[in-house]
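Could you show me just one protein sequence together with its fold in token form as a worked example?
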Amino acid sequence: MIKYLPLLFFLCIVWAAKAQDDEYIVDPMLIELKAEILSSGDSSGIPYANIILHRTHSGTITNGEGYFTLEMLNIDSLEVTSVGYEKTILKIPSYYTGFEVLTFYMKPVLYNVGEVTVEGEAQQLDYFEHGDPTDIDPTLRGDAFNKKPPVIAALVSPLSFMQYYGKREKRKRQVREDMSRMRNWEMHSENYNKEMVMKLTGVNEAYADTFMIWFNGQNVLPYTASEYQVRNAIIEYYKLFKIDYELE
């Protein structure tokens, strides 16, 4: 009996270790993670950090204050990256159920720059030049960009880049487009009208209406066309119109 004591002692140790491991096994559970990403340097929120969930190849970004939400499993890990900070792996505590906001910290990247000596003459600046002039009404000018910004602007000025696609900026651009379209149409109507058609074709008012309805259906004359283009199109298409309606 005594010779079996070491074996029994060994089995007891294995059983105790297995029982302890079972206590820490976490069952996978779907949660909605609510968390904030802060800088370990000054505890400020890190805006627009990239949150990646590799299991589903999905993710999100933090808002301007470093806050984000993400639906995931409680056993998932998240990879967080942001310009100027070290890549961080987030692990969710086993007790978390989604009812509180977790706080995680990212470590800033510190760059050691040696002493730099700048020599030369300062360039004379004209402080009264501010780029190309614009005729856009001040109330309709974009707060960020008047024209669609390049992709590189998302890295240089992410706040302005995202603002460009906001509802307010879209409404401004739509109003500017409508105003531009109206001005172009007013200019177009000076060249393309019933009097011009009657003058170039020699038809009466009734046939002029009929021709203009037919001509508009051909959709060949943009409203930005010049006076020469309008006159030439009316003359050429009136020949086709006479063939269709057998006016000759």
Remarks:
- The helical segments are 5-23, 153-156, 158-164, 167-191, 194-201, 205-218, 227-245.
